[in-house]
Amino acid sequence: MIKIDNSTSRVFARLGQSGAAFGVGLIEEAEKKDNIVVLSADMAKPAGLSKFASLHPEKFYNIGIAEQNLIGVAAGVANEGFRVIASAQACFLSMRCYEQVRQYSGYMGLPVIYLGVSAGFGLTFFGNTHYALEDISLYRSIPGMTVISPSDPGQAIKAMEASLEINSPVYIRCTGIPGLPPIYKEDFEFKIGKGITVQDGSDVIVISSGSITRNVLDAVETLETSHKLSFKIIDMHTISPIDKDLLNSCMASKLWITVEEHFVSGGLGSVIAEFLSDRFETIKPNLLRLGIKDKFSVPGDYNYLIETNELDAQGIVKQITECIRKVF
Amino acid sequence: MDALDIHKKAEFSRRRIVELGYGCGKHGAHFGSSLSLVDLITNVYSHFFKLGPSEVESENRNRFILSKGHGALGYFAVLEAFGFLSASETAGFEVNGSNIFAHAHKDLKRGIEYSGGSLGLGVSFAVGIAIANKIRNIDSKVIVLVGDGECDEGIVWEALMSAANYDLQNLILIVDRNGMQSDGEKETIMDQKDLCAKIASFGFCVQEVDGHDHKQLQSSFLKESLMPLAIIANTIKGKGISFMEANPAWHHGALTDNQYDLAIQELALKK
């Protein structure tokens, strides 16, 4: 298992989420397990797979720019007992081959690990064709699929390790760009389906997933100086299955807020709304869902896209402040 | 298995297609497709599954993938002919709660390797198994059967390209070319022009055969090549039942009592 400390967290941060998962986590796992096969859709280099491909050429298949076939071949190899990781840009790995994922890993239950590279706004100036802002929504609709959105590169490594330990399909959504500051500078326990309480509090519960969690931490720091409220921050890295125990322990709070780099419809916010909707109680928390407001964006660099969608710390502070005025 | 035995298995399977399809009543069944591919699957089982049901869980077994999922009725009939399914199991065809329905559902204990239904998806899956067998040094064949209509799907060509790229000599593609699809004649809907040349250009060793000629099919399996094999089998949709032959209305249809009697009589005469 990878150990996170101040030094390694900075190294992993420079690699970005997929770079760390593939360039560090996968290399270590492949030394221990001889049944790992990795497939890519002409995205090996940007995803950080070059090292694995050169160390294990017999276990690496570049299927070319053909995501549908990527998934079919991955399923066939997984059918024979190999642990298979299929990787492509998250936009295409979710949309272009959605039916294949549903067929092979949903209906047939094959435990492929789908690693989506450059999810969210990661592909910046490539524009809306390359943004993956509905991938959580799609993947979580597949019965039996685990959906993980790591909050920093160190956690992406842990997500990869944990996914190789379970015998069911997993989608790992890698967000952010290389160089974002890490969230975890010391080691922590990562368990699929168990959210991490990054900061404890009781008045407002902020639930986040993905690299945007960094902005949530900064936003809450600001909010705490201007409001006499205590904020709990949950890094909800696993979106499906959702951590119901942790959510149940937060029911006394008046306000829950979800933050994600995903369309507001269908992602983490929707999962939490569904959770609350299924609780038949007269008094329950209000819910504010922050994310991309179901529209396409004018392209720009990563910070530009985050800011124009009000998901930078300042934008999050603004939106939460407006809500706090209504609720408290 | 000699030629007479293969012929008997195929005729048994044809009769079961009619009986089981008739049993569906008004729901109807995919008679046309099942009857066009029944000789193909019968020959695959006689050649590649000589040990019968005893090898269903062997790692070294040959694999048959029915990508053309709606030919499942024909597939089930052949599985019964070769002892993989019992008569009582196939009798569950399209009965509420049964796992034997219009598209085959993966069930290794009964030799069913793949859950079909969504067209085009079986070829990629077969390529994956063929790759896995190469990694494990398992010397067996992966046979995947598609329809010519199914070849309209783009993923089929992605998969063929990758099969040739990875030199999958352990893969055999069979195309059930009955020249028809749901809406009618293939040529009038989406003309594939020279299908053999297309597949050959993707890097396959292509053989064109009469898909109802057992001898031609058996010898096509023996072809040796450094490339993956493709067998383009020219077939007749609804083959064996006069009023179904080359009749697009029988892609999916329901037999009346009189039609059932007529079909059974025709099959009895051929014996």
Fold topology:
The complex is a heterodimer of chains A (328) and B (271).
Chain A: H1 6-32, E1 36-40, H2 44-47, H3 50-55, E2 60-62, H4 67-79, E3 83-89, H5 90-94, H6 98-107, E4 113-117, H7 135-140, E5 146-148, H8 153-165, E6 170-173, E7 196-199, E8 204-208, H9 213-226, E9 231-235, E10 238-240, H10 244-248, E11 255-263, H11 268-277, E12 286-292, H12 302-308, H13 313-327
Parallel strand pairs in A: 1-2, 1-3, 3-4, 4-6, 5-6, 8-9, 8-11, 11-12
Antiparallel strand pairs in A: 5-10, 7-9
Helix pairs in contact in A: 1-8, 4-6, 9-13
Chain B: H1 3-23, H2 31-48, E1 63-66, H3 72-81, H4 87-90, H5 121-135, E2 142-147, H6 154-165, E3 171-177, E4 180-181, E5 184-185, H7 186-189, H8 195-201, E6 205-210, H9 214-221, E7 229-234, H10 257-270
Parallel strand pairs in B: 1-2, 2-3, 3-7, 6-7
Antiparallel strand pairs in B: 4-5
What does this structure look like?
The complex is a heterodimer of chains A (328) and B (271). Chain A is built from 13 helices and twelve strands. Chain A has helices spanning 6-32, 44-47, 50-55, 67-79, 90-94, 98-107, 135-140, 153-165, 213-226, 244-248, 268-277, 302-308, 313-327; strands at 36-40, 60-62, 83-89, 113-117, 146-148, 170-173, 196-199, 204-208, 231-235, 238-240, 255-263, 286-292. Chain A has two domains: 6-173, Rossmann fold (3-Layer(aba) Sandwich); 196-327, Rossmann fold, CATH 3.40.50.920. Chain A is globular, with a radius of gyration of 19 Å. Chain A has 328 residues and is of the alpha/beta class. In chain A, 41% of the residues lie in helices and 18% in strands. In chain A, the strands form two sheets. Chain A has a seven-stranded mixed sheet, sandwiched between helices. In chain A, strands 7-9-8-11-12 form a five-stranded mixed sheet, with helices on both faces. The termini of chain A are far apart. Chain B has 271 residues and is an alpha/beta fold. Helix content of chain B is 42%, strand content 12%. In chain B, strand 4 and strand 5 form a beta hairpin. The longest helix of chain B has 21 residues, at 3-23. The mean pLDDT of chain B is 96. Chain A binds chain B through residues 37, 58-59, 61, 63-64, 66, 68-69, 71-82, 99-100, 103-104, 107-108, and chain B through 106, 114-115, 118, 121, 123-133, 135-136, 154-155, 158-159, 161-162, 165-166.
